[in-house]
Structures are given as C-alpha cells and as structure tokens.
Here is the input.
Amino acid sequence: MHYNEQFLKDRGFIFTNGVWCKPKPVKNRHPRTPAKLESNPGDGTLVAAQAEVRDSRRFLVRVTSFRKRLLDQDNLCEKYHVDCCRYAGIIPGDNPERTRIEVSQEKVGKGEPEFTRVEVFVTE
Here is the structure.
C-alpha cells in the first residue's frame, strides 16, 4: 500500500535518508520548576547609611615586562594587566585623574625566564 507525501506529512512522518519515518516524541526526563524572579527594589535614593564613601586615593600602576626580545612600547598590552587589577578590586578604576600607568621593559639573558611584573602603589 502506498501513501502520498501529504498524507504522511499530515500524520507526523518525516522523510530522512530516503525513508519515511515517524519520530518518537521527546520526553522531559528531568522536569524542573521555573526560577522565581526577584522583586524589583525600585529606583529610590540611597539613605545616608548606604551612601558610598568617596575614595580620594591615587594609584600608580607600574607594568614591567622582562623579555628576551624587546617589543615596541605600544605592543606590551598594559591595558590587560591594569584591567585585571581593576576587576580584582586592587584599584577602583583606571581613569587618568586617579591612576597613573607606567610601562617599561627590560631584556633578560639567555636561559632566564620571561615574565611581567605588575606593581601597584598608593601615591596619596
């Protein structure tokens, strides 16, 4: 007995690899409850106790690269190291009003390891 394509499609059959077959329904083996959404705290003002204390310290970040072959000064990628310090909470930000960044490189001898030294100083 032969059926036409539309008849098979209407009954959920699909044509794959030259054969008409009916896929088995997928069952959810591990049903989960939906996550509960947090309530919106609102956009109200902060009370005096919650206000952030202004930090007036200034920072000096010195990035020194010890390399066998010296690079152009703009290829040392100090931004990556400064951002790592910022994300770790070592410095509050990298804006020029509060943070000065110094970059240098030194040549190492044969057999010595290459590394990068990042130093953070509080200047005020």
User: Anything to note?
Assistant: The longest helix spans residues 78-87. The beta strands are 14-16, 19-21, 59-67, 99-107, 115-122. The radius of gyration is 31 Å.
